[in-house]
Amino acid sequence: MSLAPLDMVFVRLMGASLVVFPWSIYLAKTGADAGATATTATTATTATTSSLFGLSPLPLRQTLVLGLFGGVAFSPLAYTAFLFAPAAHGAVLMPGTLPLSTALFALLILNERFTRQRALGLALIACGGLLVGGVSLLKAFDGGSVWVGDVLFICASSSWAVYSVMARKYKVDPVRATIAFTVFAVLCFVPLYGVLAYLKALPFGLESHLADAPQHEIILQLLMQGIGSGVIGNIGFTMMLKAFGPVRTTMLTALVPSLAALSAVFLLGEPLYWNLIAGLVLALSGVALGVWSEVKK
After folding, report:
1. Number of compact structural domains in the chain
2. Which of 22, 125, 157, 235 is least buried, going by the fewest C-beta atoms within 10 A?
3. 3 state SS of 114
């Protein structure tokens, strides 16, 4: 991989923009056509539902909040963290802390209360994640700057948690939410980063390898990170938020570290350690307990 971490953010957003900008224009056009036959009051109401020169299908406040936490903050924080900490830390910390931070923000913003079952489920999930990745995380205490990456991973997870809770609060359509925060992120990040990378004037000693990266690598990331993860993945995730709520949805992500490690056992021939089995059992138990507590309501 020759692309720098922030190059990946740039390419991800550029790939997503290939889909969301035409989509947003289509939504604006069909909305305008519908409004042309409506009453004046209805037309005025329709006009307030878009922002950023009609590129975002959501009102400005919703676009700013979702775009800030879901787009501008999350991706740069997550990708920059890989400069300091190994990928194994990200695989544990981001999905592992996401249910905890989401539950906290849901309590503060949505006034969702902790039940005993939910609290126990979150505790089991946290213990499962620590069992799977605890040995790797202990290397942060060996010195160096690994801890910086770990902090950035947690900040990225917290940023996505705020997006998850606010998307639930606004009760936004998944497609419109994805378009809105992607458009905001593209307009804020892509021009600035593109100019600074071209002038080789990135701050904090950061470097860009966009000019040197192989074309096939850039195209692959445009498709996988931009369209695959940035558009399809985000729409799917927001659909889950709308159906299940932020806490239950993010609790499911806690299975990622254990399932990823278990996949490595079968696909890559890595050894199967006791902590992997125990971590997976704890995480599954926590998710089951958390979901069961919601079903009983």
Report:
1. 1
2. 22
3. coil
